[in-house]
TrEMBL record:
<keyword id="KW-0067">ATP-binding</keyword>
<keyword id="KW-0808">Transferase</keyword>
<keyword id="KW-0472">Membrane</keyword>
<dbReference type="GO" id="GO:0005524">
    <property type="term" value="F:ATP binding"/>
</dbReference>
<feature type="domain" description="Histidine kinase">
    <location>
        <begin position="41"/>
        <end position="256"/>
    </location>
</feature>
<protein>
    <recommendedName>
        <fullName>histidine kinase</fullName>
        <ecNumber>2.7.13.3</ecNumber>
    </recommendedName>
</protein>
<keyword id="KW-0812">Transmembrane</keyword>
<keyword id="KW-0597">Phosphoprotein</keyword>
<keyword id="KW-0547">Nucleotide-binding</keyword>
<dbReference type="GO" id="GO:0005886">
    <property type="term" value="C:plasma membrane"/>
</dbReference>
<keyword id="KW-0418">Kinase</keyword>
<dbReference type="GO" id="GO:0000155">
    <property type="term" value="F:phosphorelay sensor kinase activity"/>
</dbReference>
<keyword id="KW-1133">Transmembrane helix</keyword>
<keyword id="KW-1003">Cell membrane</keyword>
<keyword id="KW-0902">Two-component regulatory system</keyword>
Length: 256
């Protein structure tokens, strides 16, 4: 009986080991698939503006368009496509930096209110263009974190709240603390997010309205970057939204 029990334990251990090897192989395969999908999407997203730019340049080169107004329009389209490509490359670089675990992330004591004000000031021109006003309310909090990551997180959320707002809309940003957690909320009076898209907006390259996103210089990567940063700090994201009424993103991050 004793030998039988021992054999049983050994057999179970071998089975567990085989299962964990299979699981890790599946995980590696899955990660490989995600990476391949990312590169294929990113290449496609870059190819589209390059093709348009080439088209506009050829039209301008042909000399068929002598109308100055039309030429000006082509130049501004080239400028817009180039700026979209720059946004995309910057976001891809950001994701690659976040995913490279070898890079050491420097953590310091970050004063949240000045950082938030700095981000809002840099987004003021976009808010003015979109006729949106930003309201700020910030409780003084110091968080042990990487300032650049926090800047990226806050900036992506506020940029979206401006871009997907309505003319004369509002963006309300608040920072408070609750039980050793920093609570950041970004609320807008914009177009809102349909129920079935609430989970998907955090996926890479997913957009509810691709046309609107592109027009506003979106890449489809902003919220996936936000999710990545929140996960890095073991935080959480809550999204409340109603179509045509607005959205509210609530981010909770442990302060230490
Ligand atoms: P994008 O660069 O397209 O803005 P994001 O990853 O930041 O990409 O967001 C994904 C999509 O989620 C957007 O294209 C948009 O459709 C939707 N979205 C994000 N934030 C908001 C918001 N505040 N209000 C309405 N829709 C939003």
């Amino acid at each position: 009986q004793y030998q039988y029990d021992e054999m049983n334990v050994i057999a179970q251990t071998v089975l567990q080991m085989a299962n964990s090897v299979k699981e890790s192989r599946n995980r590696i395969e899955f990660e490989k698939m995600i990476r391949q999908e990312f590169f294929s999407n990113a290449s496609h997203e870059l190819k589209t503006p390059i093709t348009s730019i080439q088209g506009y340049i050829e039209l301008l080169e042909n000399g068929l368009f002598t109308d100055e107004k039309m030429k000006k329009d082509f130049y501004s389209r080239i400028k817009k496509e180039t700026s979209n490509m720059t946004n995309l490359i910057n976001d891809i670089l950001m994701i690659s930096r976040l995913e490279t675990k070898e890079i050491e992330v420097t953590l310091t004591d970050v004063r949240i209110c000045p950082l938030l004000k700095e981000v809002c000031t840099s987004l003021e021109p976009l808010a003015k263009d979109c006729k949106v006003t930003i309201e700020l309310s910030c409780k003084p909090i110091v968080m042990h974190a990487n300032a650049q990551q926090l800047r990226e997180l806050i900036s992506n959320l506020i940029t979206n709240a401006i871009k997907y707002n309505k003319p004369n809309g509002k963006v309300k940003v608040t920072v408070t603390s609750e039980a050793k957690e920093l609570v950041l909320t970004v609320e807008d009076t914009g177009v809102g997010i349909p129920e079935d898209a609430k989970q998907r907006v955090f996926e890479r390259f997913y957009r509810v309205d691709k046309g609107r996103s592109k027009k506003m210089g979106g890449t489809g990567l902003g919220l996936s970057i936000v999710k990545h940063i929140v996960n890095y700090y073991n935080g959480s994201i809550e999204l409340l939204s109603k179509v045509n009424e607005g959205s509210k993103f609530i981010i909770r991050l442990p302060i230490q």
